[in-house]
Structures are given as structure tokens and as C-alpha cells.
Amino acid sequence: MSNRQKMKAVGAYRYLPLSDPESLVDLHIEKPAPTGRDLLVEVKAVSVNPADLDIREKNNYEAESPKILGWDVAGIVEQVGPECQLFKPGDEIFYAGSVARAGGNSEFHLVDERIAGNKPKSLDFAQAAALPLTSLTAWEGLFDRLGISHSVEENESILIIGAAGGVGSIATQLAKLAGLTVIGTASRPESVQWAKEHGADFTINHNSPFAPQLKEIGFETVDYIFCLNDTVQHFANMAEVIAPQGKICSIVPVAKSSQAGSLDMDLLFSKSVTFVWELMFTRSMYQTKDMIKQHDILNQLAELIDNGKLKTTLAERLEPINAANLRLVHEKMETGRSIGKIVLENF
Hints:
Number of strands: 16
Protein name: Zinc-type alcohol dehydrogenase-like protein
Shape: globular
Number of helices: 10
CATH topology of the largest domain: Quinone Oxidoreductase, Chain A, domain 1
Helix content: 25-40%
Low-confidence stretches: none
Keywords: Acetylation, Cytoplasm, Metal-binding, NADP, Oxidoreductase, RNA-binding, Zinc
Distance between the termini: 25 Å
Strand content: 25-35%
CATH class of the largest domain: Alpha Beta
Organism: Paenibacillus sophorae
Main location: cytoplasm
Order of helices and strands: EEEHEEEEEHHEHEHEHEHEEHHEHE
Largest sheet: 7 strands, mixed
Structural class: alpha/beta
Family: Belongs to the zinc-containing alcohol dehydrogenase family. Quinone oxidoreductase subfamily.
CATH superfamily of the largest domain: Medium-chain alcohol dehydrogenases, catalytic domain
């Protein structure tokens, strides 16, 4: 029997419908120890993302050890590995982590310091936990993948499909800060209001053809499109309204589409349109040479928040972090109608 300390966690042994109490269970597992560049973090708050749902659903086999989900964490560094250079015990941090490792739905969690940032000083742990995964996705999508300048000189426009969701709420704010005219898509009065509160200049409904709606608000085409919802469903609409030599970035793979099909890339050919994917986990999964860029991005985001230029997208808090509450949040997320971010705090 191990002498190592135990800690609380929430995990899944196999895929089950959320109505089944065994779909996510409360656990006591061994507390890990940091090696290399890992930080051992005392977890204070976690947020739920579509990634949690995807990975829980893929976990459809009998597993000897539980799958721990959770890729949005805010907490306090308890110990540092022998090779750490960026943080010390007592530092307050926030991060998304890596899907190649256990998630953060546990009292203590290991994360590589190169993908963690200093928590915004002006936010509490729950407000900070709402941000990392969506903010990194938005930042990388806009600035790394679409190649948008941090200060746009010309009057350029971006269409953000799914502007009221977690990524959309941050992408809208960052795009406005860069100087873009932001058109967000939203289909309900409450999501339209949320998108506008977070900086959208205009909104259109993603359940109707884009071109006529854009013409009504004075746009023949848009320079950039950031697709955060059902790439296959929206592809023909995107191809129609993207400007010649424009750029499209999507975070939703074809396999996750609500309808069978593929992307007819020839629709983009005559306009010489760039199409690019964004997955925030690429850097950590493949241990890319520029992995530390996520540390830098999170620190820049924290600075923007503390300077009042960016705001958290926290929409709802729950307490404590346990299986029952996580099942509730997963159920809300499965509707596809959640606005902003739901955060759980304290074990």
C-alpha cells in the first residue's frame, strides 16, 4: 500500500449518460509529485469546456484507472519541479493544461510551467478559471492562425460564428482591441445581448443565410471569419461572404458536425482564401519548440484584464467541485445553448 497522500478528484471509468450517477464519480486518488518543469498546483476553481464532453464521450470503454477531466484551472503553486524557472510556491496561476495528461478536476494537479500564466490580480480564482482555454484559443486563432495584427490600421472586419460562447466572448473583445469591426452571430435575444455587451458591433443569426443579413448592415464581404460552431453547416455561407484573399479559421473539426459531409475546399479556390485550423492543445500535445508562448499569452491576457481592457466571461458559479455539480454543468453544456462560462470552485 502506498504511503503517498490521497486527494479528492472527479473522474469517469467509462462513458455513461449523464443521468447515470456513475458517469462522473467522486474519487480519492494519490496526490502527485512534481518532476522536471512541472508545477504541483492546489486547485481552487475549474471551468468546463466542450473538450470535457468530447473526452468523456470518447472514454467509452472499461478503464482500470479513471479519466480525470478539466482543462481550465486557477490555483496556487504548492511545489515546483527541479527544473522550474518561471514560478515559485505560493504563486497564483491559471492555465488550460494538456489533454495528453490528467485534467484539473482534482484537489492537486500537475502542469508544465511553460503553459501556465500568472493569475490576473484583479480577479478571484473562479473569474480566472473561466478564461485560459477559451482565451488561448481566441488569441491563437486571431493572431497566430489568422495572422491579424494587434493593431489593425485599415477598417477591416471579422465575422465570429458563435460570438456568445466561451471562445466567442473573448475573441470578440480581442478583435475589438485590435481595431476590427466585429460582426458576431447569435440566435437568441439573450445571446445577442451577451455578444453586444462583449463588444460586437453587429449581430446576425447563424441559422439563416449570411449574405443577405450582412448586406442589410452594409457589408458585401468580411475580411476574416472565425468559426466556433459547426464548420460543415456554415462552410458554404462562409465561402460566399469571405472577401477575396480573406482568411477563415475554425476550431470545430468535420467529425463534430451536426450533419454528415465534408468541406468543399474548391469553394475557396477562386478567391485565394486561406483556411486554417486552431487547436489550443497542439503546442502541449506535440511539445512544440514554442510551447512557452502559451505562458507569454496568458501573462499578456492577465495584463489586459488588470488594465481593464478585457473582462472575464464567467456567467455562473457552482460550489463545491464534486461529481454531482460537474454532471449538472456537463448537462447544461450538452444543450449547446450555454452562454459564457460556468465555473466550479472549492473542493
